[in-house]
């Protein structure tokens, strides 16, 4: 759970940072008046950065889900092996008791 919260926070901060700087990335002002950004430019850049952040979050959650599925499959395999070993030990113990009773 902590990894998920960290991923969400990092994704949102990355998106907001990109959104805040996006209008300045390709700006080559022709004149002094041309270098000012409008409110629409800033809002669009923030919205685009937020969408990028959400995309990063979705990808991160998908990777975490896949890792969890792999971990669950490995744990299931280990539990199956342990169950077989326990069953073999129980069978061996029952055979030993039967041999002792016959003697």
How much is the radius of gyration in Å?
Answer: 30 Å
How would you sum up the global shape? rod-shaped
How much beta, percentage-wise? under 5%
Q: Share of helix among residues?
A: over 70%
Indicate the mean pLDDT: 76
Helix segment tally: 2
Number of strands: 0
Q: Largest beta sheet, briefly?
A: none
Give the helix/strand class: mainly alpha
Provide tags for this entry:
0% strand, single chain, mainly alpha, 103 residues, rod-shaped
Notes on the protein architecture:
With 103 residues, the chain is mainly α. It has helices at 2-25, 39-102. Helix 1 packs antiparallel against helix 2.
Please specify the SSE layout and strand pairing.
Blueprint: H1 2-25, H2 39-102
Short description:
The protein is mainly α.
